[in-house]
């Protein structure tokens, strides 16, 4: 259901003629809704779904909340590596929007938002429909910068999947992984900072190694060509690879491989200064930027991501727009589903304070990332964040330690399953 | 005294009076000569009990608790369903205050909960406890 410009104007005129008091008392609900302040959220992932739910739930009907999302369901990037590893099925990481609509009265507009007219405060959809807003939340996630890896493209991703947006790409990667025979290699090109889910590539390597090991493969190798000199939870992953998959995983930092020259997805090669790596499966994860609508709205900076006020998640370029999740420049916070969920709650609180008489409390953010290295061998890293020194700043944190005993690692994995059920319930039910 | 060094079971959640009595019971053996670690434990237990008493005397702000509680329900399901992470909804105020103080001061050791409670002020713990006690689905 979309509002056309004509429809909006005619309803507005009718409201003016009728008078606000009369309209509130006597008009049917769908017309009364025109009097409420409008919040539009673009993107139904960890950030957007959470923002929509908390805006609708906590305003107790005082706001008109619209969620624009192109898909009917959302497949979480978090735990998609566990699908690759065979620990979860695809349906278990895919969620619908029914409860947001039925339990919270959120209007779901299914379609692609193409542009934002910031002066008129409207969003224009691909089908031409215009959706007006008083406050706009952008939670578009990431887009790939395909040409950051020479030889890679959107088309090449059909052969060498990035699988860094969960969905068909993830299923393609799983199919290719499962089709490997012993002795065939995997080459992963890891992304440069900043990117979605800092430990994600390395958990993925672990899960791919788990699949190869489970089949009894002894000849296959996984080469990781990394543009970064170090990575998230590095000591934990490298200890785990040594322990569970000895000789299978070879990680190359830039001081060793010397730079990625080009890739050839048809030939299955990644050429670096050091050597040319060959794989029957290439998993190319390129550089990333904020989803296209952020750029279309003109709220993305030179880095491709969106600067925000650390105390509120409000865009520094437009006070009626909030940017949350992976698309935002969130200081010390990693780009993660947990972060997006945390930022969504801060944004929702500030939007309610803008548009209703509710109070804005000081912003507090948190994040924890769990990773699975092998069956029952889970690790985690977490931190608290606050607005400080003009950015979102880490104020306290922890990380799992190398050499932890099996019972603790199993408890950490079980905790991650509880967290998954918790966060998807927090987003979608 | 050892009782106070262990996390209380849910059933053993004390009343405010029991907490006060506990603080006194811990205070008495402090005068005895004890091994260093036992003395440290006793001092920590006393610190826990003092904080709990202080927080239980506050009136938690439910609206603030609802905002802060957004951080809890990322993991602890608001419906009370649980898998791998225990449910919290409807827990009595004194139980929640005791547990959060124990995480904050380190007598409970889960790193995530230790982190989440690290920056909470007395007022924030009081607000959260009121919110959690009122949680229902």
Can you describe what's shown?
The complex is a heterodimer of chains A (429) and B (137). By secondary structure, chain A is an alpha/beta fold. In chain A, 32% of the residues lie in helices and 26% in strands. Chain A contains 13 helices and 24 strands. In chain A, the strands form eight sheets. A five-stranded parallel beta sheet of chain A has the order 5-2-1-9-20, with helices on one face. The two termini of chain A are 22 Å apart. In chain A, 48% of the residues are buried. Chain B contains six helices and no strands. Chain B has one domain: Orthogonal Bundle (Cytochrome Bc1 Complex, Chain D, domain 2), CATH 1.10.760.10. Chains A and B meet through helix 12, strand 23, strand 24 and helix 13 of A and helix 3 and helix 5 of B.
Task: Describe this structure in a few short sentences.
The complex is a heterodimer of chains A (429) and B (137). Chain A is of the alpha/beta class.
Q: Which term fits the overall shape of chain B? A: globular
- Order of neighbouring strands in the sheet with most strands of chain A: 5-2-1-9-20
Percentage of residues in DSSP E strands of chain A: 25-35%
Q: Which blocks of ≥5 consecutive residues of chain B have pLDDT under 50?
A: 1-34
How large is the radius of gyration of chain A?
23 Å
What is the second-level CATH architecture of chain B? Answer: Orthogonal Bundle
| Most extensive protein-chain contact, per-chain counts | A-B, 35 and 26 residues
Helix/strand order of chain B, N-terminal first? HHHHHH
CATH class of chain B: Mainly Alpha
Oligomeric status of the shown chains? heterodimer
- By CATH reckoning, the class of the largest domain in chain A would read Alpha Beta
InterPro entries (chain A): FAD/NAD-bd_sf (IPR036188), FAD/NAD-binding_dom (IPR023753), FAD/NAD-linked_Rdtase_dimer_sf (IPR016156), FCSD_central (IPR049386), FlavoCytC_S_DH_flav-bd (IPR015323), FlavoCytC_S_DH_flav-bd_sf (IPR037092), SQRD (IPR052541)
Domain FAD/NAD(P)-binding (chain A): 38-157
GO molecular function (chain A): flavin adenine dinucleotide binding; oxidoreductase activity
Domain Flavocytochrome c sulphide dehydrogenase flavin-binding (chain A): 363-428
């Amino acid at each position: 259901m979309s509002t056309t410009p004509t429809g909006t104007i005619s309803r507005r005129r009718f409201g003016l003629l009728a008078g606000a008091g009369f309209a509130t008392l006597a008009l049917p609900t769908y017309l009364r809704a025109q009097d409420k302040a409008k919040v539009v959220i673009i993107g139904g992932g960890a950030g957007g779904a959470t923002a929509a739910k908390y805006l609708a739930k906590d305003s107790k009907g005082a706001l008109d909340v619209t969620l624009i999302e192109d898909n009917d369901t959302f497949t979480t990037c978090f735990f998609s590596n566990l699908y690759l590893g065979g620990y979860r099925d695809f349906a278990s990481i895919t969620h619908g929007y029914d409860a947001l609509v039925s339990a919270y009265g959120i209007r779901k507009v299914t379609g692609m938002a193409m542009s934002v007219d910031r002066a008129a405060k409207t969003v224009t959809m691909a089908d031409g429909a215009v959706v007006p807003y008083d406050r706009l939340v952008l939670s578009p996630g990431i887009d790939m910068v395909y040409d950051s890896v020479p030889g890679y493209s959107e088309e090449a991703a059909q052969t060498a999947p990035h699988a860094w947006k969960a969905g068909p790409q993830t299923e393609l990667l799983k199919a290719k992984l499962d089709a490997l025979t012993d002795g065939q290699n995997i080459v992963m090109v890891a992304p440069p900072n900043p990117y979605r889910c800092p430990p994600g590539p390395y958990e993925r390597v672990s899960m791919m190694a788990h699949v190869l090991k489970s089949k009894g493969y002894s000849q296959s190798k996984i080469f990781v060509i990394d543009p970064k000199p170090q990575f998230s939870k590095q000591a934990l992953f490298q200890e785990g690879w040594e322990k569970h998959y000895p000789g299978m995983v070879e990680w190359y930092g830039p001081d060793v491989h010397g730079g990625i020259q080009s890739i050839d997805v048809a030939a299955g090669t990644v050429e670096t200064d050091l050597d040319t790596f060959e794989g029957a499966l290439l998993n190319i994860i390129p550089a990333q930027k904020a989803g296209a609508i952020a750029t279309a709205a003109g709220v993305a900076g030179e880095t491709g991501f969106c600067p925000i006020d650390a105390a509120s998640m409000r865009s520094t370029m437009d006070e009626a727009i909030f940017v949350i999740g992976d698309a935002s420049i969130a200081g010390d916070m990693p780009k993660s589903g947990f972060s997006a969920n945390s930022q969504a709650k801060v944004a929702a609180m500030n939007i309610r304070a803008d548009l209703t008489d509710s109070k804005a409390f000081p912003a507090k953010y948190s994040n924890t990332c769990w990773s699975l290295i092998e069956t029952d061998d889970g690790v985690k890293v977490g931190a608290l964040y606050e607005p400080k020194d003009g950015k979102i700043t880490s104020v306290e944190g922890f990380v799992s330690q190398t050499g932890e005993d099996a019972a603790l690692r199993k408890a950490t994995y079980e905790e991650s399953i509880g967290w998954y059920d918790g966060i998807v319930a927090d987003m979608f039910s | 005294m050892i009782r106070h060094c262990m996390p209380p079971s849910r059933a053993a959640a004390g009343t405010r009076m029991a907490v006060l009595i506990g603080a006194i019971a811990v205070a008495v053996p402090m005068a005895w000569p004890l091994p260093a670690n036992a003395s440290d434990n006793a001092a920590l237990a006393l610190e826990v009990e003092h904080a709990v008493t202080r927080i239980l005397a506050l009136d938690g702000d439910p609206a603030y608790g609802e905002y802060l509680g957004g951080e809890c329900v990322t993991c602890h399901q608001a419906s009370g369903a649980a898998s791998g992470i225990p449910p919290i909804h409807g827990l009595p105020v004194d139980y929640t205050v005791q547990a959060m103080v124990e995480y904050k001061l380190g007598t409970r050791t889960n790193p995530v909960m230790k982190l989440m409670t690290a920056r909470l002020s007395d007022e924030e713990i009081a607000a959260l406890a009121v919110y959690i006690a009122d949680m229902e689905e």
